[in-house]
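pls ignore typos typing on phone
flavin-adenine dinucleotide + seq
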Amino acid sequence: MVMVTGSEYLDRINRLESEVWVGGERVKGPISEHPVFKGVMKSQAELYDLQHEINLKDKMFYDDLPTGEKVGMSYLIPKSRAELRDRRKMIQVWARHTAGLMGRSPDYMNTALAAFASSTTILTDQPNCFPDNLKNFYEYAIAHDLSFTHTFINPQNNRSLLAFIEENSTNARVVKRIEEGIVIKGAKLLATQGGITDEIIVFSAPGIQDPSHAFAFSIPSNTEGLKFVCRKSFIQDDSKYNSPLSSRFEEMDSIVIFDDVLIPWDRVFFYDNVKTANEFYKDGNFVPFALHQIVSRQVVKLEFILGIAELIVDTINIREYQHVQSKVTEIIKGLETSKALLLVSEIQAEQNDQGVMVPDRTPLYVAVNQFQEAYPRFTEIIQILGASGMVLLPEEEQFTSAIGQQLEHYLQGFEMNGRDRVQLFSLAFDLCMSGFGSRQTLYERFFFGDPVRLSQIIYQSYDLDQPVAFVNEMIEKNKLT
Ligand SMILES: Cc1cc2nc3c(=O)[nH]c(=O)nc-3n(C[C@H](O)[C@H](O)[C@H](O)COP(=O)(O)OP(=O)(O)OC[C@H]3O[C@@H](n4cnc5c(N)ncnc54)[C@H](O)[C@@H]3O)c2cc1C
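k done
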């Protein structure tokens, strides 16, 4: 069995003592006890423990044939539709535990790494490319059930199409190629969960043009010269009653700084090769498999949002209003559309030359792009239905104080006591209006790239010849003779 337990994960990350900066100070001591990280690390540990739960075991692992070991399902490179479905089921077990609110639960990057490892033919015989390093690293990650953060995008200082002409001193780049490896200096935009994973996988941003920016590697989070500088935390307080979501799932985002970081050769997957860097992203298996993981999670998250909306409707008894029904139906339509697109991607999956069963990326792109646009509307619907209930949220301490009884009475809902009603609305607030909730909205909008450019990709890659031929055929038939 090579699946870690929660406490093994916590222990391993604590021992790394990676350089993580919060509020102007370097984190000292066990990071899993730090107020900013303890909630999310506990949740992550619970995910690892779920791998060992007897009644879930069949869903959580597969038998690795070469070693005979049981391996976490999210590392599986599927060879059949049934295996693709098994991946989805496992992803959704973890997503259900976090209500889909941890975008970077370990299955996200395990999926990415499996997809990279299944795309190594793109690197074969190309200059400065090391497909065997990637394959070996994939095996190593499986053998230790490693956790990962990742960073792709360069800092946001000049997004003009002509930015590449300007001298750039911020982007992480190769500054030395020496006997021991390559040396990286500069920064990458951000890494969600930066500093609380075993390793960080670093890839070129899609569409780069400068060879020194074209690289891919993985290094331990405590590599010398590597710094994770965190944003302000969105945890309001520790209480699961007051802050039910942020106290457990605030993943944190960090800027990643490389101060002359040495990447040993055996960890370099490619470098100084713009053509391969762009092809690896565009033509490899990363996009379809990452999208499959994402939509599997988003389906669970949508179910959670729908549940909250319907409970609000129940709690203040507003079901009879037609606009209320149509607003909840908007969420139902989003959920059913995502579910259908996910299944279509599996039905239309095709085995590639290497025998990998690759989900159809088009329905998945459509699902993610729609979600990017629809997610803010779903949170808006919760606000519209909840109205003042979204802010009249006395804390736990008020209910246990001398005025608790009065609050129980005056804040009661329709067939629900005051304490339970406030608990439900606190959940809705944390999802839609707190700092944590707003970050969730931004995350769903942007984490897989800019929605505008994603819709451009769909347009540019969609087979439009068939519908055009269809119309031309009709025009031909109706031509005046
Ligand atoms: C909460 C959160 C977590 C994230 N986590 C990670 C992570 O863990 N790892 C990681 O690598 N990345 C992560 N990202 C980064 C994510 O990939 C980027 O936010 C995304 O690719 C958009 O890039 P940007 O933020 O630099 O926006 P920009 O590219 O700077 O876009 C800003 C605005 O300019 C417009 N614009 C810019 N360029 C163009 C263009 N060429 N054509 C048309 N319009 C343009 C955009 O439409 C947008 O409106 C995360 C982002 C968020 C918000």
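Residues 150-153, 156, 159, 189-192, 253, 439, 442-443, 446-447, 449-450, 452-453 surround flavin-adenine dinucleotide (CB under 6 Å). The chain has a mean pLDDT of 95. more later
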